[in-house]
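Priority: medium. Attachment 1 of 2:
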């Protein structure tokens, strides 16, 4: 088994529905341009508030993907 190298990048997903939907949006969008996503770790959750009401759920994810070895 060959050694592997991974990179972790932070992305933020936003949804008007829920934190889960915000995370899903971030993962689905990132997967369109980054191959071989492996793990997404929730780093932070927050909400946007307007006039005393929650308007957006935001999730900051640390997403890891594997570097291609070229072999």
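Attachment 2 of 2:
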């Amino acid at each position: 088994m060959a050694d592997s190298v991974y990179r972790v990048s932070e992305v933020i997903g936003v949804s008007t529905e829920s934190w889960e939907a915000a995370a899903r949006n971030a993962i689905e969008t990132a997967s369109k341009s980054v191959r071989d996503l492996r793990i997404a770790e929730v780093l932070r959750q927050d909400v946007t508030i307007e006039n005393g009401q929650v308007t957006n759920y935001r999730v900051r994810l640390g997403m890891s993907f594997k570097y291609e070895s070229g072999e």
